Every structure is written in C-alpha cells, then in structure tokens.
Amino acid sequence: MAELSVQIKDLPLKNPVMTASGTFGYGVEYADFMDIERLGAVIVKGTTLEHREGNPYPRMAETAAGMLNAVGLQNKGVDYFIDTIYPRISAYDTQMIVNVSGSSIESYVECAGKVAGLEHIRAIELNISCPNVKQGGMAFGVTCSGAAEVVRAVRRVYPKTLIVKLSPNVTDIAEIAKAVEAEGADSVSLINTLLGMAIDAEKRRPKLSTITGGLSGPCVKPVALRMVWQTYRAVRIPVIGLGGIASWEDAVEFMLAGATAIQVGTHNFIDPAASVKIIDGLNDYCDRHGYRSVSELTGALAL
Amino acid sequence: MKVVENRILHEHYCLLKLTSDERLPDMLPGQFVEALVDQSPATFLRRPLSIHFVDKERNELWLLIQFVGEGTRSLGRYRVGDRVNIILPLGNGFTLPDGLSNGQKLLLVGGGVGVAPLLFLGTYLKERGWEPLFLLGARSEKDLVQLDDFRKTGETYVTTEDHSSGERGYVTDHSILQTTRFDRIYACGPKPMMVAVARYASSVSVPCEVSLENSMACGIGACLCCVENTKEGHVCVCTDGPVFNIERLRWLN
Q1: Per the CB < 8 Å rule, is A60 touching B234?
Q2: B120 and B86 share one domain
Q3: In this complex, do A29 and B216 lie within 8 Å of one another by their Cβ atoms?
Q4: In the prediction, which pLDDT does A168 show?
C-alpha cells in the first residue's frame, strides 16, 4: 500500500484522483455507484454569480473516441449553491472544490468572494476556459493579460487554495500558466475542452445549437498530455492534469508528464465508478514499481 | 447482464433479451437503461434504451432496438451468452391512472421504435385491472414490430403511411380518435408524432404524458446534455423525465 496523499498548496488530498467539473454533478449523483468519500476531491459543476439556463438543445454530439458539449454553464447560481447544495455536500469526507465561472471580472470576484466564506470548501477552480459561453469564460483564458487580470482580481478576495483551469485553445499554454502563477495562482488545472464542431451531412446542419462546442474524451488525451508536460516545465506551482483520462495507465502517464493530481472527466459518463478504479490502479502501480508515495511519479518521466 | 436471446425482427429492429445472475430490481414502465456497447469500439457513449418488457418470472429484461447507427447495429450482433454492461433502471416512469375506475379508457400511442415502452406499460396497466388500448403507427406494415405481443395485451389499432396495414396516414389520423373518448393518453415516438398527439389530447382536454428521447450522455443528471426546455426552464430528460406531462412542456401554442 503506497502513500497516496498529495498536496495542492494548502489543500491536502487523500489521493490524486479528482472528478472534473461538469462531469460529476455535485457528487451525490454518483453515490449509487461508488463511495465518493474515496475520492481525492470532487470538483462541482461550474457555478456563476447568477442563475444560467445554459444553451439550447441540442448540446451534445458524439465523436470518434469523444464527445462535444455545449452546455453553457447551466447552473442555479452561487446563492442557490450556498443555500441548497452546500448543506447537502459539506459533510462528505472528501474535498469539495467549487468551479467558479463568470462573464466579467466583477462577477468572478463576487462569486469567488461568496464561496470563500464556506468553511468546508477549501479551494476553488477558477474557470477561465469555458468555450461555450458568449461572454467571459474562454475569452479571459486565451490571452496572458486577460488571464492575469482575472486571477489578480480574484486573488484579492480569495485567500484559500486557488486553482486556475486553463484553456487548450491557445498557441502556448505554458505562457498562460506563467502569467497566472505570477498573479498568485496556487495551481493550474489543464486542459478544459478543445473547441470543435460537428455537422450532420444529411441535414446539412451543425449538430450543436451553438455550432461549435468543447471536445473531450480519449481523443484529446495526447494533446492534454503534451500541454501538461509543457506547463510542468514552465511553472513551479502544482499542475493538475486532465483530458481523456479513462484508466489508471492514463493517470500514471499524466503524473509522469508532471501532474501532481489528475481529474477524471468524460469517462464518468461511460463508467460511473471509473475514478475509484483509477485510485486502486494507481496504488497497484506504485506497489509494483516500488514507489512508496504516488507523489514520486510527478515528473518522473525517463528521458 | 447476459444475452438469452437476440431476435432480428427485420432489417432495422432486434429484440434483445437479457438476464442477470441477481434478481432484477423493480422497474417501472417508462424507465430506461444505459447500455455500454463494448463490442463496437467506435461507439463511445452508452446507448439509452427504453425498457420494452420485464419478464419477472424469468428474470428477463427485454429491449426493442432500432438500428440507427453503429452502436445499435452492434447490439443487433450480440449473441446468446454475451455480456452487456447495463445501468438500470433510470428516469421516471409513466403516471398510473390512479383514481380512474377500471372501465375507463387508456390510449397508448406509439410510433416507430417509440412503441418499445408501451408493451411494458400496457402489461403493467392490465395486471392492475385497467384495459389498455394501443394505437401504433409505422411507415409500412413490416415496421410494425412486436404486434402479436401488443395484441395479446390489449385491443390494437394501427396506421401505416403507405396503407399496407390498418388505416392510412399518421396515428393522429386514425378514426378511433374521432369515435372514442379516452380518459388518459400515453405517447412515445418521433417528436413530430408526440407533438401531434399532445395537440390532440389538449384539444379534447385529456391528460397526456409523453416519453422524450433527447440525446444524452450520462443518463444520471450529471452532464446536463439532454435538457428539455420546459415551462420551468431547462430540465434533464434523464432524471426529470423521460416521461413528461404535456402541461409541463412548451410544445403547444
């Protein structure tokens, strides 16, 4: 039995396996399939200052080894989260992390400020990379100055662990990571979805109501792995890797490329218990290879 | 679950019967399952399939599958003894007509593969003393699948677009709707058909439920992909439906 705990700044995780925002609801949706307290962390659905209805249906298109989504941050707003959802999830013995999204600097700041007051939420993941909203979202995450500006503003009101979720829809993700590190981000998570598109040839129509959407699943894994590797070499803060992780082998690969922790996203839809299988697989891997702690895997790629 | 029979009904349909080593959980008509199609590497997501019938004595789950793409075609190639990874039961069932006396008339309207949940619903109603009446529509006679099982369960009327069986036209063109007053209507099928049925039900002030088949990923309310824009805003078809009273939808007016 290897030591599985890892640390993201002030945030201790019992193991490096988290579930990605937007793929795991608020955790409770998965309670029939697994013991969610076994997880390192649950990152809850993207939360915004105001209630959002999200984009019109259809919002999803299956692709080769993946899927496109255009949900558009449907959620009932941060006040509803605080009043109704937080009391239901705060007793779980795992880290509940809130994914904070916004359409303006002010809305990010106000939302993060409200979440800062929640005792059992010890970290937020700042989403500057949602490709499915017209305003804000990815717009902040694709330039160094935009990313820096929103992180600087949120850092002032958020004293706990601040993770920034990065967009892969950029020329050089390491530059963005360095920009948010300089503004005080405690960690970066990557990658959010890749901007993509699907067309119904017979109907000559786009398959998504928004025409374009975010691509996720095993098809994005090589891109994500490469970006984790590039980012790991560019920053000193811990990197959280995600993008197509479906097995413990995938998780090991991301850690070898430099990730301190990983997130399971789209694969939760295929196998609702995937994340706990990955925890077990990571432990077996460490035992087989003589690692006493899973953290020894981070950046241990043999070159 | 293990395949006990996979009968090809015709070029576009199969009837897949599955059993489990464990006792199957209680399931309600209108609920659905999510099947992993692991024999088709090109099929990424699970396939949501409505429950066609539950044979409690034999501990069997029946799925009526229309071959739409590679995933469903692959399910048609599963052989006896093959294993299928299935999550069940999901969603909410049809509302039973509690309070209605047994003599009152219940119409179950199905189109295409949308007839699937109606066999389970009809049987369930019949076992509880109601008399279901089926109105089933298809393009052509050969597309009317499982007709014998429907006829065993209740009086069955059909329409075909090419007039190869029953009355010509769509289900809403059938004369039974002009001659009989129903007390409840349940419908499942292509959306234009369900909208037409909902419009009819509304015009004659009959309570009506429809089962939606919005495309979905997770089936458990996590991905928020399968939403329907109801009068309360976007709700997940997988967890809030798939059965909806037409009063909740924004289909009419």
Answers
A1: no
A2: no
A3: no
A4: 97
**Can you tell me the distance from the alpha carbon of A1 to that of A182, in angstroms, rounded to the nearest whole number?**
37
Q: Residue A199 falls within a domain, yes or no? A: no
Domain count, chain B: 2
The reply to whether B31 and B126 lie within a common domain is no
Q: Supply A162's token pair.
A: 């601040």
Q: Show the CA angle centred on residue A117, arms to residues A114 and A120, nearest 5°.
A: 120
Q: How confident is the model at residue B98 (pLDDT cuts 50, 70, 90)?
A: confident
- Both B110 and B16 in one domain: the answer is no
* Catalytic machinery residues of A: 130
B184-233 confidence digits (pLDDT tens): 999 999 999 999 999 999 999 999 999 999 999 999 999 999 999 999 99
- % of chain B at pLDDT higher than 90: 95
The residue type at A232: Y
**What is the band of A292 on the pLDDT scale with cuts at 50, 70, 90?**
very high
d(CA B144, CA B165) in angstroms, rounded, equals 9
**ipTM rounded to 2 decimals:** 0.94
The answer to whether residue B68 is domain-embedded is yes
pTM for this structure? 0.96
Cα–Cα nearest to B135, from B96, B106, B99: B106
What is the CATH classification number for the domain harbouring B40? 2.40.30.10
Cα separation, B19 vs B11, in Å, equals 24
Of A53, A271, A272, the CB nearest to B234: A53
Q: Are residues B56 and B125 in the same domain?
A: no
Nearest C-alpha in A relative to B216: A60
Cα–Cα distances in angstroms (integers) from residue B36 to residues A144, B24, B48, B85, B138, in the given order? 42, 18, 9, 5, 28
Q: Which residues of A touch B (CB under 8 A)?
A: 22-25, 29-30, 45, 53-54, 56-60, 62-67, 69, 71, 74, 217, 266, 268-272
Dihedral sign for Cα atoms in the order A139, A145, A147, A153: negative
SS3 assignment for A145-183: HHHHHHHHHHHHHCCCEEEEECCCCCCCHHHHHHHHHHC
The token duo for A25 is: 């609801």
For chain A, what is the domain count?
1
User: How far lies B152's CA from each of B64, B106, B133, B146, in Å?
Assistant: 17, 16, 11, 10
pLDDT at A303: 93
Indicate whether A204 belongs to any domain: no
Asked if A25 lies within 8 A of B221 by C-beta distance, the reply is: yes
One DSSP character per residue, B125-152 reads HHHTT-EEEEEEEESSGGG-TTHHHHHH
How many Cβ atoms are within 10 Å of B21's Cβ, its own excluded? 7
Query: Which chain B residues contact residue A53 at CB under 8 A?
Result: 233-234
Nearest chain B residue to A28 by CA distance is: B222
**What confidence score (pLDDT) does residue A131 get?**
76
